[in-house]
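Batch manifest, entry 17 of 40.
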Amino acid sequence: MRSVHRPVLLCLPALAALASCGIPTTGVIEAGGPASGVVPRASVYFVVDEALVEVPRRTVRPVGVESAVDALLRGPTPEERAQRFTTLLPPGRTTTRTAGPDLLRVRTKGVQVTIELTRAVDQLSELAAAQLICTVLAAQRVADPGGAPAPVTVQDAAGHDVGGTGGSCQAG
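Output type: C-alpha coordinates
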Protein backbone atom coordinates (compact mmCIF):
# COMPACT_ATOMS: atom_id res chain seq x y z
CA MET A 1 0.00 0.00 0.00
CA ARG A 2 2.89 2.24 0.68
CA SER A 3 3.98 2.19 -2.99
CA VAL A 4 0.57 3.51 -4.19
CA HIS A 5 0.71 6.64 -1.98
CA ARG A 6 4.27 7.59 -2.92
CA PRO A 7 3.51 8.61 -6.60
CA VAL A 8 0.48 10.58 -5.48
CA LEU A 9 2.50 12.39 -2.84
CA LEU A 10 5.23 13.21 -5.38
CA CYS A 11 2.71 14.77 -7.79
CA LEU A 12 1.07 17.02 -5.19
CA PRO A 13 3.88 19.68 -5.09
CA ALA A 14 3.89 19.94 -8.90
CA LEU A 15 0.12 20.37 -9.02
CA ALA A 16 0.23 22.99 -6.29
CA ALA A 17 2.89 24.97 -8.19
CA LEU A 18 0.87 24.94 -11.40
CA ALA A 19 -2.32 25.97 -9.69
CA SER A 20 -0.72 28.86 -7.84
CA CYS A 21 1.44 30.44 -10.55
CA GLY A 22 -0.63 33.64 -10.33
CA ILE A 23 -1.05 34.31 -14.05
CA PRO A 24 -4.67 35.03 -14.87
CA THR A 25 -6.19 33.77 -18.09
CA THR A 26 -6.76 36.33 -20.83
CA GLY A 27 -8.67 36.49 -24.06
CA VAL A 28 -7.42 37.63 -27.44
CA ILE A 29 -5.50 40.90 -27.24
CA GLU A 30 -5.70 43.13 -30.34
CA ALA A 31 -2.31 44.71 -31.04
CA GLY A 32 -2.32 46.05 -34.59
CA GLY A 33 -2.36 44.41 -37.99
CA PRO A 34 -0.89 41.11 -39.01
CA ALA A 35 2.83 40.70 -39.47
CA SER A 36 3.83 41.69 -42.98
CA GLY A 37 7.48 40.67 -43.12
CA VAL A 38 10.58 42.69 -43.79
CA VAL A 39 10.27 45.58 -46.24
CA PRO A 40 12.99 45.25 -48.88
CA ARG A 41 15.44 48.17 -48.74
CA ALA A 42 18.28 49.03 -51.04
CA SER A 43 20.98 51.61 -50.52
CA VAL A 44 21.50 54.00 -53.41
CA TYR A 45 24.20 56.63 -53.71
CA PHE A 46 23.38 60.24 -54.54
CA VAL A 47 25.68 63.23 -54.71
CA VAL A 48 25.82 66.15 -52.26
CA ASP A 49 28.57 68.75 -52.73
CA GLU A 50 30.60 66.47 -55.05
CA ALA A 51 30.55 63.60 -52.50
CA LEU A 52 28.63 60.33 -52.52
CA VAL A 53 25.99 59.85 -49.82
CA GLU A 54 24.24 56.55 -49.09
CA VAL A 55 20.42 56.82 -49.03
CA PRO A 56 18.02 53.96 -48.15
CA ARG A 57 15.27 53.13 -50.66
CA ARG A 58 12.25 50.85 -50.39
CA THR A 59 12.02 48.39 -53.26
CA VAL A 60 9.05 46.40 -54.51
CA ARG A 61 11.08 43.25 -55.02
CA PRO A 62 13.87 41.65 -53.01
CA VAL A 63 17.09 43.63 -53.08
CA GLY A 64 19.31 42.68 -55.96
CA VAL A 65 21.63 44.54 -58.27
CA GLU A 66 18.90 45.43 -60.80
CA SER A 67 16.30 46.56 -58.26
CA ALA A 68 18.91 48.74 -56.52
CA VAL A 69 20.09 50.31 -59.80
CA ASP A 70 16.45 50.90 -60.82
CA ALA A 71 15.90 52.71 -57.51
CA LEU A 72 19.02 54.81 -58.16
CA LEU A 73 17.86 55.74 -61.66
CA ARG A 74 14.55 57.05 -60.31
CA GLY A 75 16.65 59.81 -58.73
CA PRO A 76 16.18 61.72 -55.50
CA THR A 77 12.73 62.42 -54.12
CA PRO A 78 11.49 66.04 -54.00
CA GLU A 79 12.34 66.13 -50.27
CA GLU A 80 15.87 64.90 -50.98
CA ARG A 81 16.32 67.45 -53.78
CA ALA A 82 15.33 70.15 -51.30
CA GLN A 83 18.21 68.87 -49.12
CA ARG A 84 20.61 69.20 -52.12
CA PHE A 85 20.76 65.51 -53.03
CA THR A 86 21.29 65.08 -56.76
CA THR A 87 22.33 62.47 -59.27
CA LEU A 88 24.78 62.67 -62.13
CA LEU A 89 22.92 59.91 -63.99
CA PRO A 90 20.18 60.64 -66.51
CA PRO A 91 16.75 59.20 -65.70
CA GLY A 92 16.14 55.77 -67.15
CA ARG A 93 15.78 52.16 -66.28
CA THR A 94 17.78 48.95 -66.42
CA THR A 95 17.22 46.04 -68.71
CA THR A 96 18.58 42.58 -69.37
CA ARG A 97 17.56 42.82 -73.03
CA THR A 98 20.17 43.32 -75.70
CA ALA A 99 18.41 46.23 -77.38
CA GLY A 100 15.94 48.93 -76.46
CA PRO A 101 15.64 52.51 -75.26
CA ASP A 102 16.84 51.73 -71.76
CA LEU A 103 19.71 53.58 -70.13
CA LEU A 104 21.81 50.57 -69.21
CA ARG A 105 22.02 46.80 -68.98
CA VAL A 106 23.17 44.90 -65.92
CA ARG A 107 24.98 41.67 -66.69
CA THR A 108 26.23 39.17 -64.16
CA LYS A 109 28.71 36.57 -65.35
CA GLY A 110 30.05 34.37 -62.58
CA VAL A 111 31.07 36.80 -59.86
CA GLN A 112 31.63 39.75 -62.25
CA VAL A 113 28.93 42.44 -62.53
CA THR A 114 29.07 44.62 -65.64
CA ILE A 115 26.92 47.68 -66.14
CA GLU A 116 26.73 48.41 -69.86
CA LEU A 117 25.62 51.89 -70.84
CA THR A 118 23.49 52.19 -73.96
CA ARG A 119 23.84 54.78 -76.67
CA ALA A 120 21.41 57.00 -74.70
CA VAL A 121 24.39 58.10 -72.58
CA ASP A 122 27.22 59.94 -74.36
CA GLN A 123 29.57 60.39 -71.40
CA LEU A 124 29.59 59.46 -67.78
CA SER A 125 31.80 61.13 -65.18
CA GLU A 126 33.84 59.12 -62.69
CA LEU A 127 31.53 60.26 -59.89
CA ALA A 128 28.46 59.12 -61.86
CA ALA A 129 30.12 55.74 -62.46
CA ALA A 130 30.90 55.58 -58.73
CA GLN A 131 27.18 56.13 -57.99
CA LEU A 132 26.44 52.96 -59.96
CA ILE A 133 29.34 50.97 -58.53
CA CYS A 134 28.59 51.87 -54.91
CA THR A 135 24.89 51.10 -55.36
CA VAL A 136 25.76 47.67 -56.81
CA LEU A 137 28.22 46.95 -53.98
CA ALA A 138 25.58 47.91 -51.38
CA ALA A 139 23.04 45.60 -53.05
CA GLN A 140 25.57 42.78 -52.92
CA ARG A 141 26.08 43.39 -49.17
CA VAL A 142 22.31 43.02 -48.62
CA ALA A 143 21.93 39.96 -50.84
CA ASP A 144 24.97 38.16 -49.36
CA PRO A 145 25.87 39.80 -46.02
CA GLY A 146 28.96 37.71 -45.33
CA GLY A 147 30.17 37.33 -48.89
CA ALA A 148 32.97 39.10 -50.67
CA PRO A 149 31.71 41.77 -53.08
CA ALA A 150 31.93 40.88 -56.76
CA PRO A 151 33.98 43.10 -59.06
CA VAL A 152 31.86 45.79 -60.73
CA THR A 153 32.68 47.32 -64.11
CA VAL A 154 30.90 50.18 -65.88
CA GLN A 155 31.27 50.17 -69.68
CA ASP A 156 30.22 52.74 -72.26
CA ALA A 157 28.17 51.77 -75.33
CA ALA A 158 31.39 50.89 -77.22
CA GLY A 159 32.46 48.44 -74.49
CA HIS A 160 35.21 50.61 -72.98
CA ASP A 161 35.58 50.80 -69.21
CA VAL A 162 34.40 54.06 -67.70
CA GLY A 163 36.22 55.39 -64.62
CA GLY A 164 35.00 55.01 -61.09
CA THR A 165 35.78 52.70 -58.23
CA GLY A 166 34.20 51.56 -55.00
CA GLY A 167 36.86 53.46 -53.05
CA SER A 168 34.57 56.43 -52.45
CA CYS A 169 31.68 54.31 -51.12
CA GLN A 170 30.69 54.83 -47.50
CA ALA A 171 30.24 51.52 -45.71
CA GLY A 172 26.63 51.04 -44.74
